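Lecture 7 notes: from sequence to structure.
We start with the chain below.
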Amino acid sequence: MARIKRYLMAGAPLACALGTAYFMQAGAAPVAVQRAAPVSAAPVRITAIELTSAPALPAMPAPEGLPPAPVTRVVARDMPLPEALPGDEPAPGFACEAAMQATVLDGAMVRLDVSAPCKPDAGFTLHHTGMMVSARTDAQGQAAITLPALSQAAVFIAAFEGVAGGEGAVATAEVPDLAGHDRFVVQWRGDAESLRLHALEYGADFGEPGHVWSGAEAPEGAGRLVRLGFDMPSPAFRAEVYTFPTQSAARDGSVALRLEAEVTDGNCGRDLEAQSLRIGPSTGTVVRDVVLPMPDCAALGEFLVLQNLFDDLKIAQK
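Predicted structure tokens for the same chain:
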């Protein structure tokens, strides 16, 4: 790490009948009508009239009647009615709404369990106090993500991608332990390797004990750093969060924060945009937008280091 070429930089602020008719007329000449001549018939004289009649038809036999049926009279008995008639059975349904549950963990961390049975292998974005990270459900529509809380009255929103109306889920949690921690967040959208946050505790340099970053094989400091964001077909929202337990510090000192940007095929010759958030008991929440002008692609694999993105964290033993 010590041999990697780095450039130190200062921070910079973020800056579509017609219709056709026709007729036909027959032109045949009129045909002459021939009329028949009247024919005279000899008159017929009636000399006598004789009345005749047909013999009478026999009378139809009368139908035999059915034997009389006995009639039994029955008096209806009074039956008690139920106080309430049974209602209609509800139609069976299938729960498709997404749900999210928040569980507070040690170190002011929160575990989020997302259940979306109708959205297997679906991407969604987690929103929390200005921080945005991409996540994805599994084949059963479930997901579990642990986030650092950025507010004591924490609100988390899971918004699924490509859903009209912003369908998703909301969860809340009370995180009083956050009051004893300082947190530093860097977030961006794009290549996972574009940015890395480095914490140099108690005067440590890169590669020395006390250098805390996401590429370390094992934690070597009092603070902890987490890297957030899943790969997505579209550019993913990513973040790195460094936490120092200020109120339980073992000794006085300071922590210097450095932002490192690697020159990659995806960002060379372009402006790399990011945002920083600082949350602490003495500072509240401080947000800064950052634009890093990246070198051209001849510098692939080299790094820019931004030194003054955050003020150093001053630690006083309690």
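Points to note: Residues 11-54 have pLDDT under 50 and may be disordered. The radius of gyration is 46 Å.
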